[in-house]
Every structure is written in C-alpha cells, then in structure tokens.
Amino acid sequence: MVPARSLAYDAPMRLTAFTVTGYRTFAEPTRIELRPITLLYGRNNAGKSALLRLLPLLGDSVADTADSPLTLSGPAGRDSTYLDLPWQGQTHKRLTITLEWVDGDQRITDAIEFDHQDGPGVYVRSIRTTGPHAFKATSIEFGSGRYTLSAGGDASELRLDFEGLLPQARVQHPPLVALRDRLVTLRQTITWLMASRVRPRKLIERTGARPRLGHDGANADAILVAQKEVLDDVARWYARPELARTLSTVEVNHPFHRLKLNPANAAGFDVNLKDTGEGMTQVLPVLVAAAQARLTSGPRFLAIEEPESHLHADAQHALASHLAELAAIDDPPIILLETHSRLLMLGFQLAVAGGVPPDKLIAYWVDQEANGSGSAQPVTFSDHGHIDGWPALAMSEDRVLARRLVSAQIGRERAGRG
Predict the structure, then answer these.
(1) Starting from the edge strand earliest in sequence, which strands make up the sheet with 256-263, in order?
(2) How far is CA 317 from CA 313, 344, 345, in A?
(3) Is the pLDDT of residue 88 over 50?
(4) In what order do the strands lie in the sheet with 121-130?
C-alpha cells in the first residue's frame, strides 16, 4: 500500500512543460513535457544534463539571492557564464526559454528571450505570454529599463526592472503581476541532486535546526535523524524484499546519533550506514528527496542525475517501483531523471504493467546531430508497459556487441579448425 501525503494541497498552478531554443546544443525548439516521472536517456554529451539542470537554474534565477535574470552563480551553473549557454552555431547571443503552465482549466505560456551585450551582460530581451493575461514586453534599449508593453491591442512604454528573473514594474500591470506570481511558485520548490553524492556521516549531530538537502546529497543523514516521517518512508524502501534491510537511528551520546542499516533477519547486528556498500549510500539522498516530496504540500520538482548510481539490478528495480508509486499518488511531484540505465527503464515498464497509469510517465531520447545540434524525441508507455516511439538505434549497443562477440567466437572456431 502506498502511503498518502500527510498534507492536502489545493493549488492549481503547475508548470507542465518547458521548451528551449538556442540553448546549449538545442538550436531548434526542444520541448520537454513534465510528467510525474520524466526520464532523459541518451549518449554522453548529447545534452541530457543541460535539460535537467534547466529546472535548478530557473530555481536559482527566482531565488532571493538571484544576481541575474539567468543566474549561473549557483552549483547548477557549473562555473558557466551566460556566453556558454547560447547555441554556438548561431551568430547572435540569444536563447529562449518557454514555460507552459496549467492554472485550473486555463493554459498559459511564457516565452522569455535572453540576450547579452558586452560589458553590461545578460538581460531579458522580450517576454511573450499567452493566456488570459496575454502581452508582449520588448526591450527598447538595454540598460535603460525601458520596454514596450503590448496587450489587448494597445501599446505603451514602461519602466521594467528585474529581481533575478522576476519582473518589477514601477506601475502595477496585471499581466506582469500574474507572470511574477507564476515564477515565484518555482522558488524553493526544486530539489536538484548531482550524480556524485556524499556518503552519510558516522555520527550525526541533532541541532534542532531543520536541515536542508544539498545538491550533493549533504544533510540527507541529518534529515533522517530530525524527521521521523522521512525516516519511516526511506526505511520502507530498504525493507523491500529485494533488499531486506532495516534502517534505524540510535542516539549514542546526546546530541549525536548513528544511522544503522542491518540485515532484516539479523537483529543483533550493528552496521553503520556509512560502512555499507556504495549503492546503499548513493541512493540515500534520492530516497530522502522522494520522501520529502511525498510529505510536503505545494509544487515539488526533483531533478536527479543517475539515481541508480552503483545499485545492483534488483535494487534498481526496487527504486523504479518506489518512484512509480510516488508518481501514482494524488497531486504527485514532478521527478525528472537523467539516466543511462536500461534496468531502471525496465523497472518503470514493470510498474506500468502492474497498474501505474502510463500517462504518469514519459521518456526522451536525447541525441546530437552531425552539426552538433541536439534533439529530444519523446517516448510514451502503453498500458502493458511497452514503450512507443523509441528510436531504432537508441540503446542498441547490447545487440551490436552481442553480434560482434558471436562473430569473434565463430572466427576463433574456424581458425582453430584450420
């Protein structure tokens, strides 16, 4: 039985998709629909990370500490500057991010075009919004804060400043206020976990503060010590038959605690979680993030790189099943996963075949053309867990290598007979 979230939430505003144009490798408009489980597959350097990290970049850009309309000073920026972002095959320095929202029965899109000038830096060149408060704002001259606002057939000039990505007009305009309100919903709602995550500590101090999960998985152990409901949810995964482990905390010397992960049938054991295998510790922040998303009210977005890192096949299946259960609850979070794992995909297919609604999942095959431009081809799931739309050559390496092995074996046998 899947535990329900502890808090009800009634907020119809939700980000449902984003499109990038002229961003990193994506020269042409590339749309990613955000379903409860959204999977990004593809070869190395195809652009998966660029797509996944767009969510934390947006989160940084609407934060109180945002220093630019497209803030790259946070960890997701990877020491980039704005000039690292536009598609290098174009002569200008512009890129566009389009956000799609659902607000009750209304659909809204916000297309935000960024540009750059030497010296001053990045700025918002234009904003085009469709929906009940449709408008277009276009920069007249960079640095002046002067924009032309077109709405309802009328055009006017206004002063428009930005706090990060959040527009701030000196005169209140309902379309701009509505846009700002939409963007604010992304503030502190995006949890990003990078591929390499820190191991838990031997001793965890309980300070009374509410720890926050770091992008490298830091504080996952402190959250388990501080929040019993999160510990119980995470322990449920370790207790699955494929793993048969018991996760618990014990106070050893106030205010210090230890996390124990013992075999389920060996109650007398005392195994510190830090001393277990890499897979059991690398997955811990993923499980903590998922538990927090289940238990937290409001919009929740998880952007996770290689969630299955170092996990055995059985554990990968258990992780896919666990996340699929989360996707099937009422008002689920959005979980965006970047992975190479065929086993994780099979786990999600099994979850769909077992009853998880197929419209809760979508996958994308991210690839790169000969000219360096990227694309993302959507792949959907049938009621029986079949995947529809997978490119013929995607993840075909197993078959290719198997044929090469057979050919090599036949060649050796023939040489031996000769």
Answers:
(1) 204-205, 256-263, 245-253
(2) 6, 6, 9
(3) yes
(4) 30-33, 14-21, 95-103, 106-117, 121-130, 135-141, 146-151, 154-163, 166-169
Helix H, strand E, coil C: the string for 48-85 is HHHHHCHHHHHHHHCCCCCCCCCCCCCHHHCCCCHHHC
The burial class, CB within 10 Å (0-12 / 13-18 / 19+), for 200 is buried
Of the candidates 188, 217, 211, the one whose C-alpha atom is nearest the C-alpha of residue 307 is 217
- Residues contacting 275, CB < 8 A, separation 6+: none
Of the candidates 61, 173, 187, 172, the residue with the CA atom closest to the CA atom of residue 112: 61
Give SS3 for 344: helix
Average pLDDT of span 321-341: 96
Q: What is the mean pLDDT of the chain?
A: 91
Tell which wins on pLDDT, 311 or 6. Answer: 311
Contact 199, 281 (CB under 8 A): yes
What is the spatial distance between Cα 282 and Cα 286, in angstroms, rounded to a whole number? Answer: 8
Q: What tens digit of pLDDT does each residue of 148-174 get?
A: 999 888 889 999 999 999 999 877 888
Backbone angles phi, psi at 417, to 5 degrees: -70, -30
Give the DSSP letter of residue 275.
Answer: G
Helices in 258-341 by DSSP H: which ranges?
278-282, 284-295, 313-327
Q: What is the pLDDT, as a whole number, of residue 356?
A: 96
Q: Phi then psi for 323, rounded to 5 degrees?
A: -70, -35
Query: How far is 27 from 89, CA to CA, in rounded Å?
Result: 8
Q: Are strands 204-205 and 146-151 parallel, antiparallel or unpaired?
A: unpaired
- pLDDT top residue among 222 and 79: 222
Q: Which two tokens stand for residue 282?
A: 């690398």
Residue 9 pLDDT level (bands cut at 50, 70, 90): very low
Over residues 241-275, the pLDDT tens digits come to 999 999 999 999 889 999 999 998 876 788 999 99
The answer to whether the CB of 218 falls within 8 A of the CB of 289 is no
**pLDDT category of residue 7 using cuts at 50, 70 and 90:** very low
Instruction: Output the CA angle 379-294-53, nearest 5 degrees.
Output: 50
Question: Are 173 and 155 spatial neighbours (Cβ–Cβ below 8 Å)?
Answer: no
Question: Which two structure tokens, joined as six digits, stand for 247?
Answer: 């996760």
Q: How far apart are CA 350 and CA 371, in angstroms?
A: 37
Question: Residue 35's closest CA among 301, 387, 386?
Answer: 301
Q: How far apart are CA 24 and CA 313, in angstroms?
A: 33
